[in-house]
Amino acid sequence: MEGLELLRHHIVELGEPAAEAFTDEQLIAEMRELHELESMLAAQRARRAAIIDDRKLWRSDGSKAFWAWLSRAADMSPSAAKALVRLSRGLRQAPLTRAAFEAGDIDRDRALELARRADSPRQQIADAFPEAEAQLLDAATSVTYEGLGHVLRYWESLTDQDSEEDQAEDDRRQRKRRRRTATNPRPRRPRVGRQAAGPWRSQRARRTAEPKSSLWM
User: Are 141 and 105 in contact (CB under 8 A)?
Assistant: First the structure.
């Protein structure tokens, strides 16, 4: 706990200099360095989340999902808690990625992309990841984030060709369905309300509008 308090103290100190005290070169250099430090902190948070998960501490209060417990315990949004659980569990299957993440060599987004492949629901991808991890990690440290996405998708297409073909067929069917809908849109009937008029006027509406019997007059 003392280490975190010291870290908090230094972070507060970073906000003390006035804006005029920064040179242009200093601002540019510190933006990159702060991003690396933020990634290293994110890695330590993921590491501790994995330890909590291993010890099943989140079940102590009857919680049925780790992310739900984490959302309450750390006061984070459900989406952030789910992303942290996904990252921490994926990194178990990606030791090289985890080490690079903790060292600040890759940021959280790149680590998450690799961890998703390590823990992929597509069994062929998950099985092939350990052998390919070193090469994929090298790409993560040498190309842009968008470039890494291209590398990973290409690797997936080579590794699990059957799934890629099924996905391509699904995409073709969806495009065909959208084109058919755009060419032949379904006619929309006018809404029939209590005060409807014209040819769409319901029999009930007409009966309601008719004069009442003279018996009641």
Answer: yes
Instruction: Report the C-alpha gap between 56 and 69 in whole angstroms.
Output: 11
100 burial level (CB within 10 Å; 0-12, 13-18, 19+): buried
pLDDT at 167 over 60: no
Identify whether 175 is part of a domain.
Answer: no
Q: Which two tokens stand for residue 10?
A: 């230094």
Are 86 and 115 in contact, with CB atoms under 8 Å apart?
Answer: yes
Question: 15 in a domain, yes or no?
Answer: no
Tell me: the pLDDT tens digits for 61-107? Answer: 888 999 999 999 999 999 999 999 999 999 999 999 999 999 999 99
| Domain span including residue 86 | 22-160
b/e map 165-182, b = 16+ CB within 10 Å = eeeeeeeeeeeeeeeeee
What's the distance, CA 217 to chain centroid? Answer: 69
- Number of domains into which the chain is organized: 1
pTM exceeds cut of 0.85:
no
Which two three-digit tokens encode residue 9?
């103290």
Whether residue 197 is contained in a domain is answered as: no
Tell whether 211 is covered by a domain. no
**Is residue 102 a contact partner of residue 47, using CB atoms and an 8 Å limit?**
yes
